[in-house]
């Protein structure tokens, strides 16, 4: 199934539907209704005299109107430019001019006195399209090699960079993932991460093409939407799964008997010593509340974008909800994935169909595929050539290795490598992942560039955690590491890293530079004392 033919498939899918909450109300629309609204919006855009292949911006919180605007671009033949909200707010006029957008669909909060005719309020789209008839479109608006959207990196290393995305690579992702996970028309996909993140939209396209349902939410409506829509499939970031895990475990600790029983149960199940039928009965009895939090029908969840502890994945699988870790990049799309029947916890899976992955002499992961991305917009040829190499490989900037069975294990980002004052190099990501296995540590970021020792900036797993308790944990977890990789000092965070305080980016990855800036006073006291 090709993405450019999405209109044809939506028109045939009579039974599947999109559910969403807006302004406290619940809505449910069948795909043929959604398509009618999309084609009405295409008529509106045509009236605005926007030429085919010209660019249309979209920025705002997840909403039905956001989905309509995106699909109108895809079906009508315009290139969508999907801005991350935090970047757009600071550089609105610059971005609109820089990317030559002819129309911008945006939330009301971005309007000001200078707003002109190219600004369209997303929330007004339902009223706007009432005045239009559905546009009649014959054939596909894009071909395989066409660029259909421009996306932005999360901006961890500075100003977000824009990538031109081809339609063919997106189609390949959809087909491969739907085959591996065997989605069917009884499945319901839950989307809550920002729609400016391409994978969120790609999963939506997959549901529209392969005829399964969609539940659209935001973080604000997450719990309400989860209970009402009862999804079976979702994509989420490690931070979410870690937070829910920590919350549930803190509840378990209130009963020493329950905690003891669960730990014994999980230990036996990890060694395959409990019959499956008996384990399912235990899961239904002891983890019903946990299952209900996820709607009660969740069968699988997919995570990526940042590292996640193997213990977290084991926890979810032991409760009866399968959580699979994958590895993808903005430039090349999905690279490796764990899936039913082929999963190794701790790895990011085996090579995705159609990909060729090698490890360079320096340990960097290099990928060759039907490229998802074409190039970075507004960047020099020199910069692009470092990523999109002349030998056909894409440089990921990640370090890793394959085991004998073909599972890929990540070691961390090249740019995150810490060079100590004695010249030795340390991979902080591997140490942080190990430390996060402790229930006493919710978040950790390691500092030590050009310094004689490492310091851990730690968010406590619960308010009762003391420095002495963390030091004991460090001693336990660090025993197998080289001396240079051992942590000598601890700083407790004043609040968890989050998107709101800008210490996590839009993909909920740590922004190390901002974290170090936030705690520069404490770090200075440690290294100058």
TrEMBL record:
SUPFAM superfamilies: Acetyl-CoA synthetase-like (SSF56801)
Catalytic activity from the UniProt record: a long-chain fatty acid + ATP + CoA = a long-chain fatty acyl-CoA + AMP + diphosphate
Signal peptide: none
A GO MF label: long-chain fatty acid-CoA ligase activity
Annotated AMP-dependent synthetase/ligase domain residues: 24-376
InterPro entries reported for this sequence: AMP-bd_C_sf (IPR045851), AMP-binding_CS (IPR020845), AMP-dep_synth/lig_dom (IPR000873), ANL_N_sf (IPR042099)
GO cellular component assignments: membrane
Name of this protein: Long-chain acyl-CoA synthetase
Organism: Anaeromicropila populeti
